[in-house]
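Example record for the data management plan.
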Amino acid sequence: MKLAVFDFDSTLMEGETLEFIAKEYNMEPLMKKITTEAMEGKIDFFESLVKRVNLLKGAKESKIKNICENLPYTKGAQETIKELKKLGYKVVCFSGGYETATIPAQKILGYDAQFSNIFHFKNGELTGMLGGEMMFTDSKGKMLQRLQNLLNISPENTIAVGDGANDLSMFKHAGKKVAFCAKPVLKENANIIIKEKDLTEILKFL
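Corresponding structural encoding:
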């Protein structure tokens, strides 16, 4: 058995979920600024999560769900996951984003499991609070180790794919470290760099 782990925002999905939501509330420039700083490793990931979700406090749950169910997926995402599964990989999504987006995406893209964060809604509105499994800089690395131990899969049989600084922790435990249209901090730690926005490019390295 082998394991392939993908980031969601700007990897499996074309863009950042929170920026799509922020656009509806005229907060996209500020949201984009915080996201960029986090992905470049300039600010702590958890702090960036709190700041970004707070910007959207009061946003309607129904509107957020509608946006998250209609996100644009990256070229080749579905085909790449299908091929990886044929080759014996368990395919998992690790997202510093939210299950409001990753659960609908699972049905479309076909990955086996997802680990992400959770918006806190009350009375149909976003409270500005959150919880979940991917809230810290090292969350992805720790979860990857848990899965490898559970499934008895070695780092040599593991592929990790991401684009930002919060993906660094899973690179430490993967034989194939794929920087997909990534920030410089991730490219420096990758052994596979893909510059074209097409996930099927990964298949060339298997």
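Summary line stored alongside the record: Strands lie at 2-7, 89-98, 113-122, 125-132, 158-162, 176-180, 192-194.
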